[in-house]
Fold:
Amino acid sequence: MVLLGTKGGPAIRPGSSMPTSNLLCLEGEQIVVDCGLGVSRGLVDQGMQLRDLSLIFITHLHSDHYLELGPLLHTAWTAGLKTRVDVYGPAGVDAYWQAFLASMRADIDLRIEDEGRPDLRDLVAIHVMDAGHVMVRNGVAVSALRTEHPPLVDTFALSFKTDGVHVVFSGDTAPLPALEDFARGADLLIHEAMLKSALPALTARVGNGSEKLMQHLLRSHTSAHDVAQTATRAGATRLALSHLIPSDDPSYGPQDWHDAVAGHYDGALIVGHDGLRIDL
Ligand SMILES: [Zn+2]
Ligand SMILES: [Zn+2]
Structure:
């Protein structure tokens, strides 16, 4: 498991980490979970050949989770992709892909004609997913749970289960009691996290002066303290914090995340950073 991008939110600034993307390797499958900005670079930095791309999941349609989906698929194609890629995501991901293809039509048609490439449009299968069982491949069973992430409705946590390993991604969510059952006994729970004490400084720095950003953060995301309680109630063996808010405030570092969780979760805590590998 590699946390490729661990920043919550789409903006990047000098010195900041990258928005959300992950690589999960299970049973020989290389599974990409979310495609925020930087996912292509993150994957090749881990040694993955993009032509081997075959399975992608998008948890929801906020740009920090899918802005680079089209560019990743296109770059994989120019890197020699010849086999099908299955993309699972919420309703609307199909329209995004069609619009991306339309925006790049001149280049795609040119490369087919000029370089003899197969048609990218035939290589990608988009699957609109809903809560419940999503798919099984090579002994990896995938299911989805609708999360609480207003104003979006089609937002999902994802569970990946083999005979031996259970990995759960919270996706973006406010505290969600249903996640406790969904992640029951997970070997690894990767959960979004927010440091409540840092929010006033954050909204003053990047907000537009209204209370709207603060209201969005509080009703749509989960504080590290609440994440710890979810992980404890779920009985998760290990907890990795990702989609960190804040991620680029030098006043806050790993110790602050450990402090926020201390006393509420006594499993192994991993504070995410870009490129962090977690053995399963
Ligand atoms: Zn997000
Ligand atoms: Zn979101």
